[in-house]
Amino acid sequence: MADTFSSIPEVNYARLVDPATKSDELARLRDAIFVVGFLYLTNTGLEDTIQCTHERIHQLFDLPMEIKERCNMIRSPSFLGYTRLGAENTAAKTDLREQFDFGTPGQRSWSNEDPFWQRLEGDNQYPETPGAQTLVDEYINQIDQLAQSFVHLVAECLSLPKDVFDDFKGNMSRLKFVKYPKAPPKSQGVGPHKDSSGLFTFLSQDDTGGLQVLNKNGEWVDVPPVEGSLVINIQQGFEAITGGICAATTHRVIAPTSKIRYSIPFFLGVRLDLTLDQLQKSAAHIVKNIPTSDDRKKRAVDVPSEFLSPLYSCFGEAHLRNRILSHPDVGQRWYPELFTKYSQQRLE
Question: DSSP readout, 154-212?
């Protein structure tokens, strides 16, 4: 097996859950996890939900600006709500995208006695238009059920008990509706990064293209749209839990030049309270029992993982750091001292 990749593998979910084909498909999933960190998941049963949601999200972006601004993320210490075009940064450069961020509904209220990073788990801000909340909550509910099943299958493909990662799941996952407007050639839709809010990302993209991932050789590999599929990738949380063996893959989006691009990423949450010390104890048996060798590890390239950095007290702080630097207006309003601290760290 090659130790890098030049294309993104496909894994058939229906075959993963069929006892007659499960073993062969788990082997495909295992190779995708070890070598690439990205895969297409097909035949999920969510094709109609995905199509219906894509048909409707443009209506939210077409709302008058004053309605969108009523749920601007600047109002939310949890970094939930609307982000206007050009208000987010990645890799210290401005992203050319407009978006709505949502979280798993029904989060408990936090208090001043809670750790500062606990404020990441908060209430949604929905656009004030009929059907918006239903659209968001139903999508989160359905994609979350698939995500929980997928994590069990990942455990099985790594020859671990299927529930081994359950204790690492967080209370709140996140969903984005994203719009990339037409832009000059080679513009940054979103810059090179590793997803930092959880365990796995489940992305539904339209037929525009522009997503790219970085392989071990430092080459950008296209992730062209596959109708009805979800693009799944490892996040920093899962990378940390597996001791870096299952590494997150750096990726980016090149802004479209001839048509608008819409995408819907769902980020399965990780426990925010986990510290590196706790992780080394609680996940030691996981790392020890993952059957791999040096030639099967996908080497991380380009972007370091904050979740593995001793600079941050726990996963929650590492995640908050990324939110603050990505959304500096929100960070300066709600976390001014941390904004200064993390900005200086980034420049060192």
Answer: HHHHTTS-TTTTGGGB-S--EEEEEEE---STT-EEEEEE---SEEEEEEEE-SS--EE
- Helix or strand run (H / E) with residue 147: helix 132-157
φ/ψ (deg, to 5) at 16: -65, -30
Alpha carbons within 13 A on the beta-carbon side of 318: 28
CB contact at 8 A, 177 and 57: yes
* Dist. CA 15–CA 41, nearest whole Å: 11
Name 204's bridge partners.
264
How far is it, in rounded angstroms, from Cα 316 to Cα 318? Answer: 5
The whole-model pTM stands at 0.94
45 φψ region: left (φ > 0), alpha (ψ -120 to 50), beta (else): left
What span, in angstroms and rounded, lies between the C-alpha atoms of 260 and 81? 21
Helix (H) or strand (E) holding 58: helix 47-61
Q: How far is CA 310 from the centre of its chain?
A: 22
Strand order in the sheet with 188-193: 188-193, 251-254, 211-214, 220-222
The pLDDT tens digits of the residues spanning 34-82 come to 889 999 999 999 999 999 999 999 999 999 999 999 999 999 999 999 9
The whole-angstrom separation of Cα 17 and Cα 144 is: 17
